Amino acid sequence: MVPTVVQVKPNNDFTVYVYFGDGKIKLFDMEPIIKKGGVFKQISSAKDFVEKCTVLGGTLAWDTGGNFDPHHCLDIAPETVYVEGKDVADPLEY
């Protein structure tokens, strides 16, 4: 079972540091997904990507509606982030 996401730190280069409940930190690159278009085109500006990035429903998400409704957001399955994200040290400790 994959632990839930507890914190995120988005970056202007469309990567996100994702903190999991088990203490792991992953660096997840959203740029390839955004470049494919589709629904993720809504966060294709660095400003929207960073400002709307949050944790909703225990996973990495973007609050596109501005009301923190987990049913009306863009999200990535925590399993995807956990498996495909790169293991990293905590960038906030430097």
Strands ordered across the widest β-sheet:
1-2-3-7
Q: Tell how many strands the DSSP assignment holds.
A: 7
Number of domains: 1
The end-to-end span amounts to 30 Å
Strand content: 25-35%
Mean pLDDT: 95
Helix content: 10-25%
The rounded Rg comes to: 12 Å
| Structural class assignment | alpha+beta
Q: Overall 3D geometry?
A: globular
The run of helices and strands is EEEHHEEEHE
Poorly predicted parts: none
Explain this structure to me?
With 94 residues, the protein is α+β, with helices and mostly antiparallel strands. It has one domain (5-56, 77-93). 20% of the residues lie in helices and 31% in strands. The chain contains three helices and seven strands. It starts with a strand and ends in a 7-residue tail after the last strand. 22% of the residues are buried.
